[in-house]
Input
Amino acid sequence: MNWLNLAAGWLPEFFDGFLVTLALVAMCLPAALVLGMLLVLLRVSEKAVVWAPTYAVIEFLRNVPTFLLILVVYYGAPLLGSRLDGIYCGAIAIAVQHTAYLAEVFRGGVAAVPRTQWDAGRAIGLKPAGVFFRVVLPQAVLKVVPAIGNQVVVLIKDTSLVAGIGVVDLTLSGKLVMERTASSYEVFVVIAAFYLILTTIASALFRWLEIPAGKRR
Output
């Protein structure tokens, strides 16, 4: 099968898988960003009873293979009485793990914010949480935009792991096409091109965010 026939005959199926991958990214990314910002507040606490268990959870999640975590959620959900579809099990596992990664990214940004910013926030009457979210965190995020961008690219690629639990995303749709056509090389080059489009757009967006607002065009 040549490239033209492959594109004409199976591109719609690739596109359906592409939409599932987009849906996964749309579910995982906002959840991981928001939860990561909340988790880092506990991580930078001065109270050992708060930061110590948070650190333990973050390290556990960062060091467990992503696919293993997906399997734990997928097979563990029925034991808890839940009947979640595979796509939601995959989204939960990926979002939870990337929450831990992003919490550490944000922690690095928080550490780079001068201590005087905390003191200034308290001086104008803000409570500790208010100082963190209104003064420190915005500055911290700006300092780690490149690292956030890298993590977003990794998250996009990690969505391909849901194929292992039967979710017909971009990767599994390619495998199904391959089984019907015996054109493994051509199929997976096309799949790689779809992922490249997604990651290139994400990388370009975060490179744009790195540019100071006054210099953007």
